[in-house]
Design a protein that fits this description.
With 259 residues, this protein is α/β, with parallel strands linked by helices. The protein is built from 11 helices and 11 strands. The strands form 3 sheets. Strands 1, 2, 3, 10 and 11 form a 5-stranded parallel β-sheet that branches. A 4-stranded mixed β-sheet has the order 4-5-9-8, with helices on one face. A two-stranded antiparallel ribbon has the order 6-7. A hairpin with a 3-residue loop joins β6 and β7. The protein binds zinc ion.
């Protein structure tokens, strides 16, 4: 089996400062995300690779032309209506908004802050896959250490695709780990996981590629940002590009659904 990388970005308003009690205007939240998004698009073009952009409807509605243009190359999936608690209405409405803007079916979802989603509701509104779980123990946030680690169809026939963590010890490979650990370690565990699982599901946010060093945020969130983060990701993509093919998650779903 050919190995695949699912690289994805959660295209959302930069509301982390508000989460930590800092004031940030709505306009600034969207601008911060957009600035990083343009950097990422250039980088993806330079590698000529395809990715999935989990986008909030609020970002898409403010940037219709850009999101439509991105959808011609990459996959647009839902990241909820806005970056708050995801309701049934948000699950339904975000899909409608994104489909209207891109003129393409939207089949995937990742909930804001990886809230648990009811897969019967996802089925009701026509979603085919859900990538809203990180199968690790993250103190203070969630403990998914004993949940399924690799992709599986659930009883509603929704393909669940957890973020990648290594086999056995579940070494985390998501954005916070990437930002805070040496790249050599991330590469080592990525290569192991890719060899074992035959795919890697890794994700970031556009605002990580904007310089956010001026915000009074915890070190773990802003240890590196802007160009430093962009350089680190460039190095990582070069490393992975030799080992596997980058594909959109929807293409993985269509392949899996045939077999
Ligand atoms: Zn998010």
């Amino acid at each position: 089996m050919k190995k695949n990388i699912f690289l994805s970005f959660d295209v959302e308003e930069f509301d982390i400062p508000a989460e930590y009690g800092l004031k940030i205007s709505k306009d600034k939240q969207f601008e911060t995300s957009l600035e990083g998004l343009h950097m990422i698009l250039k980088l993806l073009d330079s590698f000529n690779i395809r990715v999935t952009m989990f986008t909030t409807a609020t970002v898409a509605l403010r940037n219709r032309d850009l999101i439509k243009r991105i959808s011609e190359t990459h996959e647009i999936a839902s990241h909820g209506y806005d970056h708050r608690e995801l309701t049934e209405y948000g699950i339904k409405k975000s899909k409608e908004v994104l489909e209207e803007i891109t003129d393409k079916p939207v089949i995937g979802i990742r909930s804001p802050r990886l809230q648990k989603l009811d897969s019967s509701i996802l089925k009701k509104y026509g979603y085919k896959y859900n990538s809203s779980e990180n199968p690790i123990y993250l103190p203070g946030r969630y403990n998914n250490f004993f949940n399924k680690r690799i992709a599986y169809f659930d009883r509603n026939n929704i393909l669940n695709i957890p973020a990648s963590a290594s086999p056995i010890i579940r070494f985390p490979l998501f954005w916070l780990a990437f930002k805070n650990l040496p790249l050599s370690i991330i590469k080592f565990f990525s290569a192991w996981t890719l060899a074992y699982d035959k795919y890697l599901n890794i994700y970031f946010h556009p605002w990580e590629f904007t310089d956010i060093s001026g915000y009074n945020l915890p070190k773990i969130v802003k240890r590196i940002s802007g160009n430093d983060m962009l350089n680190k990701l460039t190095n990582y993509i070069s490393f992975l590009n030799d080992k596997a093919e980058f594909i959109k998650i929807e293409d993985f779903y269509y392949k899996k659904n045939q077999t």
